[in-house]
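Hello,

Following up on my earlier ticket. Below are the three sequence lines again, exactly as submitted.
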Amino acid sequence: MFAWIPLFPLLGALANGLLGIKYFSRKAVQAVGVGSVALSFLASAASFVALLRGSEEVLVARLFSWMTPSLVPLAGGGKASFAVDLAFRYDSLAAVMTLVVTGVGLLIHVYSVGYMAYDRSLARFFAYLNLFTFAMLVLVLGANLAVLFVGWEGVGLCSYLLIGFWFSKDSAAAAGKKAFLTNRVGDFGFILGIGVLLFVLGTIDLGSINRLAEEGALTKGAATAAALLLFLGATGKSAQIPLYTWLPDAMEGPTPVSALIHAATMVTAGVYMVARLHVLFTFSGVALDVIALVGAGTAVYAATMALVQFDIKRVLAYSTISQIGYMFLGLGSGAYAAGVFHLMTHAFFKGLLFLAAGSVIHALSGEQDMRKMGGLRSRVPTTYRVFLVGALAIAGVPGLSGFFSKDEILASAFASGRTVAWALGVLGAGMTAFYIFRLIFLTFFGAERMDEAARRHCHESPPVMTVPLRILAFLSAFGGFVGLPRLLGGGAWFATFLESSTGRHAGHLAAGTEALLMALSVGIGLAGIYGAYVVYVRKKGAPAFRLKERFGALHRLVFRKYFVDEFYDGVIVGGVLRLGRLASAFDLKVIDSLVDGAAALTRRLSKVSIVFDGRVVDGAVNGVGAVHRFVSRLLRQVQTGYVYNYALAVVFGLVIIISLVVTVF
Amino acid sequence: MTFAIFLLFALMAVFSAVMVITRKNAMHSVLYLAFTVLSVAGVFFTLQAEYLGAIQILVYGGGIVVLYIFVIIIVNLDEVVPGRRKLMPKVFIFAWPALLALQVGFLFLLNRPVPREGPEGGLEFRAMAEMLFTSYALPFEIASVLLLAVLIGAVLVAKRRLSRGSD
Amino acid sequence: MVPINAVFALGIALFFLGLFGVLLRKNLVVMLMSLELVLNGINVILAGLGFHLRSPRGSIFAIFVVLMAVAEAAVGFALILSYFRRKKTYDIDKLNELKG
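Thanks for your patience. The regenerated structure is below:
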């Protein structure tokens, strides 16, 4: 049943990609693109209901055998029978992921109908988008790491194709290349991690890995090595330190792509992968500490950059990096369900924020610089309202989805004793509230700063774009209630539902402590919002300028993204270039002078040899030619051109081969 | 009893195979080929490879042989092609295949496979189909691609000309 | 019960009759037919081994061989047709452009 889920987007991608570009009308392309994901969403919903009704916790569908069983040597000296099936695995985690991917994906597909209405390559766009949905579904449904890896690479490819969708723009093409290459570094680690697991356990089946890790078939060192290598892959795909630099550049793609791939789904693949192999990571321990620290560090680090950016999509991009950091902080604290919960709510509100930002950009005829916005509240009222809901959700205002998930992560981090990570997380929460409301106040409040032409064309988006926005706003507002904590009278149903696939979370806090933490994070969130209000509304941004002037160097550091891009360019790219230049200099100086010297010597020698050449060599050459002609006249007889002669040669060859085989072996 | 039937079919197959390669008229050869093919199908039945026998009758008897007949009708009926070659090193033409036959027969006699224990009841289709669609799923798919390639290739080769301008 | 040696004998006989057909005949169509005999001989051996070893693999491989035979026949016919269109004959010895 659930094996049908990825089929529809694949068919849609094939139809649009192979036929649509030439033969379909725009309406047909849109219908195929949206319809396939809608069918996939219905299949996911039906599978979800079936999973709730049924008694089985894990369903596996084996489509066919990919690699037939063969013996592989293991690290311990033994041998294991290794086989890979093309198989899908459906459990509570996969159910959540498929619902998010197809549900949010469907809304974004619908939105794209409006957003891309006038683009020339509509069929290509929908083909890529459907292909991405397919790959993402393969990733979350794969029953072993090989299938998961296929999806993993598939989403990477689609991400590359979609970032560079407007490939005639140089920056878009470069951004696509950057994303692909950066991901390649991570994927290298990922595939090494798979290799370690294969070498140690002899299996790459997800269920078996978790079971074997639970039974203690792993040494601590091997588990840590595998977990850290896999996490390296996750840092690439999920844009964490140190491999995050591609994500802000990825905003060159169309906005629905940023929403779907670079906010809601693909970048959370790393989170999904860690939650999927949680037993391995828990067993390692060290890996969890690394994940928690990287997550918390990224959360704050990316938030600081979001504070000073002026491109509306880049602010959201850094915000995405920061929020994924929170997810990793949750995973690293052992609260896998909390991480996945934040993944889901983040998919709702960040998808919403991106789409609403797209609506703003759409309204202003492509303007992305917030310095040229302002006062849009009355011009695009629907967009403003849904944007506000999303902002409140991400800022952690009580009652909205982001509050529940972020709070659960912070509480888990505190409960697991990671105080530093927790403090970083709280700091990041305040910054989150500040930068998102800075964005709102700059965009929707204050004076209108856009160009005259943009002002005249300024309009609210069509319903095909605002309806998905409204649905996402509803989900952002109320989606958190599925994980209502026990403290607030809920049952933490989400975590309970996920228990079958991510295990029970051990750490629990006293009710008083939990309430205190909750109050603290609410307070710091509200403080952030108030701060943004004071700076950007009441004082019209003046304090920001003063700060910028006083701490010019610091601002420059943050605004230029800590010069990490320059650092990577200088050290890694530049290093390779310098090496190349060194080689080139060596080539020019040493080798060339050698060659030149040799040439001079040769010239002198050749003068001598001309004489010799005329007499002796020419005679020899002519002689060789004559011999060849003679021999070839003889040998030509072999090539009769008759088929049976060649057939006879084959038989003769067979006789020789069989003789060899019999005598030698 | 089975062996007697096997021998009957085998003799028929060998006899008609000899006829296939010795008849002057290609049409006669085709008819003998049909006879060989059906005899080999009988052999398959005595070897309890019923599915293979059915395939043999359907694909070979019904498809390939009929195609041969068509081709002979299309290409030419009248032209008499000399049956034997004139210029050939006869010694080699017989010696090398004979050597090969000797080798192969010898090899089979040397490495006789040990019969597996099992019921005499024949091979179930189910086991075969399951294996074909699990362990051999990939070769199966590749085979389908091969057939597609053949389809396109055959059309391209047999087409009169690629385009108007190329003549 | 069919002895395996008898199966081998039949397979080898068909194989070599086919081989001689390819080597001795000049008619392109008959040469193709002889190739079918070769493949049939192989199939007999595969089926016999499958029967002998109680394994469905014999039949499976034989099916792939039949598939190959079909492909080969299709391409062969196409070649014969285009060849005939050029040379107005199907005497194989006229097909000697490769002669050195």
